Amino acid sequence: MTDSVVCGLIGTGIGPSLTPPMHEAEGTRQGLAYSYQVIDLDEHGLTVADLPRLVRGARDLGFRGLNITHPGKQAVIECLDELTPDAARLGAVNTVLFDEGRSIGHNTDWTGFGRNFDRGLPGARIERVVQLGAGGAGAAVAYAMLTRETRNLVLVDHDRRRAERLAESLAAPFPATRLEVADLAELAVTLADADGLVHATPMGMAEHPGSAVPTALLRPDLWVAEVVYRPLDTELLRAARAVGARTLGGGGMAVYQAVDAFRIFTGIEPDADRMYAHLTELVRREELEVVR
Ligand code: NAD
After folding, report:
1. In the chain, where do the E strands start and end?
2. How far is the centre of ligand 1, averaged over its atoms, from the C-alpha of 211 (Å)?
3. CATH hierarchy code of domain 4-107+255-291
4. Tens of pLDDT, residues 161-172
5. Class of domain 110-249
């Protein structure tokens, strides 16, 4: 009999998410009857206050697990029986596994960025890294860089308080790292002796066109890692390639967070290359529809 897996995604504005088709296609190819439900809080008139009820309901209905996205990644923690040590340190959960009645919170945003980084920028120097953007994605990405032994991480955000709060939250789990906060106006000086730049703001997305980093600050020996993946190729990535810098697109993070969640839900190692090819096809199709 075909093994049946039901899981889902809870968040707001998630109708266009590409995670459900990635999971379902890979599940089918792995021989599973795999159903991935989208539970959009706004569409049901719900808020994060309803998360305990939704998480309990999913468990009782036999869901294998849930992905949680904005605005529930912190609020969901209260509803869970257990957290992995990394999810606890990060203070954010994007994947919940139901295991023998218990709910266990994981975070595959940081593992997803990290695996994509190791695959896409092997051997890159990461001693001193500048990160632009200290929101939800920024927290996961910073955590991934610090677990890779970045010794000096400089956080820059046009909302300086957000950068300061992220630096404060990372100081305890990574006492050996020098965590700094810099202003956008100091970006030129901050980047001058950096090994790499991680971009984690929404700039470059279809609805926020442009680049948060002036092209004049890019150079061949400064690698650039992007989190934006819609589009897959951003203005920042193009500008960095044009000066001869090594670059890493955000598509891989989106794929590997799903790869890691799929393994947590099913115990099966999915085919990451196949999922990457599928994501690329989905984003390109979406881009063609926008052009039409
Ligand atoms: P967020 O709103 O939580 O955080 C964005 C941060 O960027 C905020 O702190 C904001 O103050 C800052 N910011 C915005 N514009 C800026 C600018 N020009 N200069 C400096 N700082 C600026 O958003 P988020 O959830 O962290 O998402 C950020 C981006 O990451 C989005 O494009 C999202 O699609 C993408 N993302 C990608 C993945 C992936 O898997 N590749 C996963 C999550 C998010």
Report:
1. 4-11, 33-40, 65-68, 82-83, 95-99, 102-106, 128-132, 152-156, 178-182, 196-199, 223-226, 247-248
2. 12
3. 3.40.50.10860
4. 999 999 999 999
5. alpha beta
